[in-house]
Amino acid sequence: MSRKISMKQAINEALDLEMRRDPTVIVMGEDIVGGTGAQGEDDAWGGVLGVTKGLYAKHGNRLMDTPLSESAYIGAAVGAAACGLRPVAELMFLDFMGVCFDQIFNQAAKFRYMFGGKAETPVVIRGMVGAGFRAAAQHSQMLTPLFTHIPGLKVVCPSNAYDAKGLLIQSIRDNDPVIFCEHKNLYGLECEVPAESYAIPFGEANVLRDGDDVTIVSYGLTVHRAMEAATALAKDGTEAEVIDLRTLSPIDWDTIVESVERTGRLVVVDEAHPRCNLATDIAAFVGQNAFGALKAGIQMVTAPHTPVPFAPSLEDLYVPSADSIASAVKRTLSPKGARSIAA
Amino acid sequence: MAQNPFPLGKDELLKAYRTMRTIREFEERLHVDFAKGDIPGFVHLYAGEEACATGIMMHLNDNDRIASTHRGHGHCIAKGVDVHAMMAEIYGRSTGACRGKGGSMHIADLSKGMMGANGILGAGAPLICGAALAAKVRGDRGVGITFVGDGASNQGTFLESLNLAAVWNLPVVFVVENNGYAESTAMEWAVSCDSYVDRATGFGMPGVTVDGTDFFAVYEAAGEIIRRARDGGGPALLECNMVRFYGHFEGDAQTYRAKGELEAIRATRDCLTILSERVIEAGVIGRDELQTIDREVNALIEDAVRAAKAAPLPVAEDLLRDVYVSY
């Protein structure tokens, strides 16, 4: 059975199904139940934006509120994972990674390799990413490149409810630490999602739109901007192929390279800052491995090298827009764009 | 044979002595071999502190977890990690406990409940909260012990973990190994409170300070708070005041120490001497029995070094192995 639900509901459903299936799955985080120890209602919040609402009623103490103490509870999730549980720890805004990053990149990510392959750390750290929520510099970042840089971490960033459910289920079952990035501006977006359980394998990008003229690669919110741009470009006769990466580590190089070898043109869209991000990573990979197929210089569309601004008028300029993506496509199609590679 | 005045039987006393002697010989040997240039990287020796690891670990089984520190060899040996595998790891060999991927600061053996030495100070405290949570969820009566030095006791991870363990009522014991020095900086200067008991009280848990060079003092204090944690009584803090016979790392000239300090602690605060004299004086164990153990331990360490030096090095294909379970 399939019905339309939001990405927020899909994440809730994935947690519910996995908790039913596997008694070692526990969920912890700040206010994920809400009101613990207070006099009012149980399950008062279900997370700051209500993603885990209702799970406490179904699973009781397997959902654990934590003190506002990210180093301690993210580390506890990592330690519990190394001891046989499958914790899902909500780090409300992944910007808060700054206060607990050691437990993720020096501990969780390293255990398997550093201990000679004798440890597994099946922990999921999920939280919000991305701008557009008027939440300013410390609650809006797309920090995915920080995570993809670290060997041992897997990094997931779904663009829709269907993928969010299948990828979160896979994340929980996966035996490596996973950073699960939820774009806060996609929480309300609905699509058809099966009610039953299903897992989407990591490292398999989703080709959302076929096209032979140019390849646009993105993930998260900007996938939708890329689709808008592709629709607009089609009116002028340009057919863009749009690839949604879904997982950033592992990454589906084959699908990207195969597409670029056909289209000869590449636009990479990343909501992260412009230096050392997914866009530069993909551009470098394609430059090294499919240079002969390129008919034009690769274009990158990213956020600027600034913190996320608060004022709505500025924040709207910050996130890559459909217009900026379409312009980048046009640059790859212009004689100048083509010359840039011949020169 | 005199009546045994100790809280352990003779076999247990011999086991404790053997563990402490094994740690001492292991570290003394590393001190020598490191100076010869045989060992890559750097090592932090536990010599002088053996009574602490041993007095605590005598209460634990493989189901109990420990999170160790950069100065972790003693914790490993006392928790039952294989000495040959440890030595091979420190020599960077493929037969090492971590197949040569971890080295001195990352020796782990999860099958023994040893969750790793740790190069990040204070990082073990949150991890052990997780281990204790897992034990609590499973209801298996397991406990978690985390070790920090007086230096790392100032880390936010450690202080946050004291709070989390108290709030979640976790079966955790926080052991502060106070050897007086955070690397080269004096504990009296760097720690803002006079007593770790005050810190424990501040987080709503009992705290106990013992003479960490006295095996029996550690053993009895640890026994009580570990039993309490196992029975669901919640976390506690144990401060062991002890001495470090070597520098922060091998090669440390230790110019921060007072003149004559090292000679004095070796002469008066050697936990192995203190234990030996007490059991011999009580007539429970003969000096010859301890000397037999000394010879056996010497042979064990000698063989571990010989085997480590003869063991194969990791090869190129090992470089990329074991980053992920699956990719």
From TrEMBL, chain A:
The keyword Oxidoreductase applies. It comes from the Bacteria. Keywords: Oxidoreductase. InterPro entries: THDP-binding, Transketo_C/PFOR_II, Transketolase-like_Pyr-bd, Transketolase_C. The keyword Hydrolase does not apply. Pfam families: Transket_pyr, Transketolase_C. Residues 5-189 form the Transketolase-like pyrimidine-binding domain. GO terms for molecular function: oxidoreductase activity. NCBIfam families: PRK09212.1. This is Alpha-ketoacid dehydrogenase subunit beta.
From TrEMBL, chain B:
One of its GO terms (biological process) is pyruvate decarboxylation to acetyl-CoA. SUPFAM superfamilies: Thiamin diphosphate-binding fold (THDP-binding). Pfam families: E1_dh. It catalyses: N(6)-[(R)-lipoyl]-L-lysyl-[protein] + pyruvate + H(+) = N(6)-[(R)-S(8)-acetyldihydrolipoyl]-L-lysyl-[protein] + CO2. This is Thiamine pyrophosphate-dependent dehydrogenase E1 component subunit alpha. One of its GO terms (molecular function) is pyruvate dehydrogenase (acetyl-transferring) activity. Residues 19-314 form the Dehydrogenase E1 component domain. Keywords: Oxidoreductase, Thiamine pyrophosphate. Its cofactor is thiamine diphosphate. InterPro entries: DH_E1 (IPR001017), PDH_E1_Alpha_Subunit (IPR050642), THDP-binding (IPR029061). The pyruvate dehydrogenase complex catalyzes the overall conversion of pyruvate to acetyl-CoA and CO(2). It contains multiple copies of three enzymatic components: pyruvate dehydrogenase (E1), dihydrolipoamide acetyltransferase (E2) and lipoamide dehydrogenase (E3).
